[in-house]
């Protein structure tokens, strides 16, 4: 365990050094990511204002803000911990560097997963926390009991795990098809489906985005939670889907490594 | 992949239009056409000169262009335009087909609207190239410009009408925006196509955007000359 913590700490240190080496670039990256979040919040406000509507698919602007902030927090967490490493994985395969990773006296899965951290999105965390506590929570009609808080926590954790697994599955695809980038693009771009309440989408699309490509499980269930509809049935379904995708991930690692070859 | 963003936008606005019949003079089909045109224009207005300049400065490649007996800026422009024309070729026909053969999108308000819209797109291309090349020229001082462009793109997303028509913004912002070069990039060509501008507004907008094109060109040339003077390259 100590060995893994040491490796993780080294990744944090190296990533931090790398970002601070180009401080202006890093600062601009932080600001840009912050501006992106802000622009999206203004966009939603404009949609409500220009449309002259108080609700979209049954949800007020404060509720939309709340879910948007939750989903973006999950996104930011995934970006910080997994995005850069998942991107580097492609280069490891292309350049044959995966051999080197496999010879290290530590789990290749762990090492490749936490090889590099990405901090650009970290400033946005403050924005989303402010949105949650100042522009959303005071306007929500939710009972803040232990059960509800735990359910919300579960939505965040499951959403984070599902999104991370999806990102990594799309990376593992490169072990089978080294030039196949479309899956990664589909996963990252379809995350935006989370921005809207689920009921704006047709039933078949909702089903597809909850079961087959479960991007609507990356925090979007918060909409059901707001209405008190996030019950055990949904929790079990989400956990079941998470387990299935973890199994797919494990099988892809095992099968992918057999396919991998390099002349490095 | 961009189609996914388009799809997400359509579903959101559809849910809004269910409650309100008409927003800022746009019907739902007009709004869909607006976003479709924005997607089309995006391919024609795409500028990569800043990336070329940044790479050229970072890796010293720009030296081989500077010694050629031609204007380096114009060379970047012509490369960009040729790239855009080829990309456009693959998008114009499907978009025209969608407009002509489906009821989801609307055609141009008139033939004059179509022609004026195209003229504005051409003007917008020059404005877009001047702005982005200007940002690229910052590389002479900073080497890295990626995040400045990224930040600028967000501004364009909003104030150029890429994310939401400018007509949907609060009136105060609209009044300011109509005198900036941003609106020319997406909002003006699409709005002219849909017949959302009066004759007087058309004349003013063409005048304003032409003036911006001239000013931006002059600023670009000034910055470029200053940048070239302080350029230091190793190797090459």
Please give a structural write-up.
The complex is a heterodimer of chains A (264) and B (236). Chain A is mostly helical and 264 residues long. Helix content of chain A is 73%, strand content 0%. Chain A is built from eleven helices and no strands. Chain A is globular and about 60 Å long. The two termini of chain A are 30 Å apart. The model of chain A has no long low-confidence stretch (mean pLDDT 88). With 236 residues, chain B is mainly alpha-helical. The model of chain B has no long low-confidence stretch (mean pLDDT 86). Chain B starts with a helix and ends in a 6-residue tail after the last helix. Chain B is 74% helix and 0% strand. Chain B is elongated, with a radius of gyration of 19 Å. Chain B has one domain. Classes of the chains: A mainly alpha (264), B mainly alpha (236). Chain A binds chain B through residues 22, 24-25, 28-29, 31-32, 35-36, 39, 42-43, 46-47, 49-53, 55-57, 185-186, 189-190, 192-193, 195-197, 199-201, and chain B through 1, 4-5, 8, 11-17, 19-20, 23-24, 142, 144, 146-148, 150-151, 154, 157-158, 163-164, 168-170.
Write the layout of secondary structure elements.
The complex is a heterodimer of chains A (264) and B (236).
Chain A: H1 2-21, H2 23-51, H3 61-95, H4 98-103, H5 108-113, H6 124-136, H7 146-176, H8 182-190, H9 203-212, H10 222-226, H11 232-259
Chain B: H1 2-17, H2 28-45, H3 49-59, H4 62-66, H5 72-101, H6 111-137, H7 139-142, H8 146-159, H9 171-177, H10 182-185, H11 187-193, H12 199-230
Helix pairs in contact in B: 1-2, 2-5, 2-11, 3-6, 6-11, 6-12
